[in-house]
Amino acid sequence: MSDSPVPAASVVLVSGGSRGLGLSIVEDLVAAGLKVAAFARTVTPELAKLADTEPDTVLAGSVDVTDLAAVTAFVRRTESTLGPIDGLVNNAAIGQDSLHVHTAPDALARLIETNLTAPLLLTRLVLRRLLATSRRGRIVNVTSICAQRGFPGLAAYSATKGGMEAATRSLARELRDRALINCVAPGFFASEMSAVLGSTQLDQIVRRTSTGRLTEPVDVLPVVRMLLTADTNIHGQVLTVDGGSNT
Ligand SMILES: NC(=O)c1ccc[n+]([C@@H]2O[C@H](COP(=O)([O-])OP(=O)(O)OC[C@H]3O[C@@H](n4cnc5c(N)ncnc54)[C@H](OP(=O)(O)O)[C@@H]3O)[C@@H](O)[C@H]2O)c1
Domain Ketoreductase: where (predicted)? Predict the structure, then answer.
């Protein structure tokens, strides 16, 4: 073990960095001076523009997180373009809007593959490369308040987020001081994923939130940045950013 703190990440891989919270994380990290590689199945014009404007700092790729060969190729491309990856944000995920009894087996399997299996495999890939070269790093898993509080229509989704939180605690013990790994669990915020929520559901969430408003990506960004770059001893934790939900 080393006496020194785990250094700040300098080259960060962000899954699902094309829109929503992921794109905001990419923009925030770039503004903070980090190099960022971001991927999603579709590279949006916003992400493409960022990569075109800052080719030495931002790399964008069209990659499905469930396609391990494609993910591995993008990791290699990132390392040859931006340098060795020492930060990972597992942000890509798909949502759910179906009671468990109405969720088809293939939909349930897809949720688990995208939101749990794929980030665990990506984490394994990044960690193996990091540890093989005796470097140290930081990992942030974007989970959800649903893992802690529950929400109707989100049983399988919540299971995947709770799974990532459990894996994070065990990984922190495995990794010791080789890498810091933590979760950020946001409350509901407006995005393509949460667009399925109706106004009745949103009103209810706001009513049950101490701060009386929905979370916004901008509330989450400083926490992600801090976990990637600050000189901290935070390890294996879930930091919730939800305005204090009372449900
Ligand atoms: N919105 C909320 O209320 C809320 C609350 C708590 C936590 N979260 C979590 O916050 C994170 C971001 O959510 P968001 O609301 O910003 O969602 P979003 O707007 O739907 O964005 C999801 C991102 O993940 C990518 N993605 C989805 N499936 C993928 C796949 N198979 N391969 C690669 N990329 C994939 C999407 O791009 P493509 O579709 O082009 O692949 C997109 O870039 C997620 O982990 C979510 O679970 C969201």
Answer: 10-188
